[in-house]
Amino acid sequence: MYDIKEWKHIFKLDPNKEISDDALELICESGTDAVMIGGTDGVTLDNTVNMLARVRRYTVPCVLEVSNLEAISPGFDFYFIPTVLNSTNAKWITGLHHQAVKEYGAIMNWDEIVMEGYCILNKDSKAARKTEAKTDLEIDDIIAYAMMAERMYHLPVFYLEYSGIYGDPQVVKKVKETLHSTQLFYGGGITNEKEAYEMAQYADTIIVGNSLYDDLTNALKTVRVVKS
Ligand SMILES: CC(C)=CCC/C(C)=C/CC/C(C)=C/CC/C(C)=C/CC/C(C)=C/CC/C(C)=C/CC/C(C)=C/COP(=O)(O)OP(=O)(O)O
Ligand SMILES: O=P(O)(O)OC[C@@H](O)CO
Ligand SMILES: [Mg+2]
User: Fold this and answer.
1) Does ipTM surpass 0.85 in this model?
2) What are the binding positions for sn-glycerol 1-phosphate in this chain (predicted)?
3) Pocket test for ligand 1, best of 101, 159, 161, 163 (most atoms within 8 A of CB)
4) Cα 203 to ligand 1 centre (Å)
């Protein structure tokens, strides 16, 4: 069984986007700690299972970040389940989770389930719009969500999500100072070594997504700088 606490770097692959076999090989053999499959829209059972099968040619751990009930498939090492703490719609905090557990609870292997407390901060991201997230937050609001995640809900992961834009390193630093046992994920706009290094000084784990599709060469370099 893998220990996600040791993961410092994750590549997030969007099953709704095209990736060539050559690019996928470079990603899976990059030395990243895990490949996470997930996205906000266009995620189907077909494209999820297809991506899983392609990643399974390699030994890298493979995680499904569940974003809809229709695209859950067996065969992943872990299932990361987002709950959007700053959503204004209960559907994205506990609603779909209740529905999922009602449907799958009896067959779920709870050792494979990892809850992620999301705080979404880019108001223009698809994830923010879809989940009706309240993104105009002061640092004290963000810290309060981090404390809730750790102290009230005992979530294993708190995910500072800037999807699509590079966030504020000082926010990541302050959130890290707040957390003791909950693992801090940072994702958003990391495109090169310098940005990866900066965010990895504070976040326990950085997630690199879009830049895999925009500039693979530089995206791949984010692994070495974090793990060395
Ligand atoms: C049959 C079998 C194997 C069963 C296994 C059991 C199992 C795993 C059951 C699931 C249990 C469970 C509780 C599921 C939760 C269900 C669910 C749908 C919860 C809601 C998740 C949620 C809040 C989604 C909202 C969107 C979100 C936060 C997505 C995360 C990914 C993300 C932020 C992507 C970033 O955006 P992106 O798409 O990359 O944007 P761009 O395209 O613009 O880059
Ligand atoms: O796609 P980017 O901006 O790299 O963000 C990564 C990840 O946090 C998205 O959910
Ligand atoms: Mg994306």
Assistant:
1) yes
2) 12, 159-164, 189, 209-210
3) 163
4) 21
